[in-house]
Amino acid sequence: MEFQNDKNNNNFETSSNAQSVNINFSQLEHGINEISSSFWDEINQEMQSNDLPLWRMWR
Fold this sequence. Notes:
- This protein is mainly alpha-helical.
- The protein has helices at 6-20, 25-48, 54-57.
């Protein structure tokens, strides 16, 4: 197995990947809030029905 010019290849790959990343933080924040909201909705439903698993009580 040869590792010639491994450093040069990694630098090119890293820089090309970094330049192509375009994050829409508004969509990211919306997705995180949606996941968090659905998680707490599920917790609240379990608490109301007295069906809360023991591992969830330790928060």
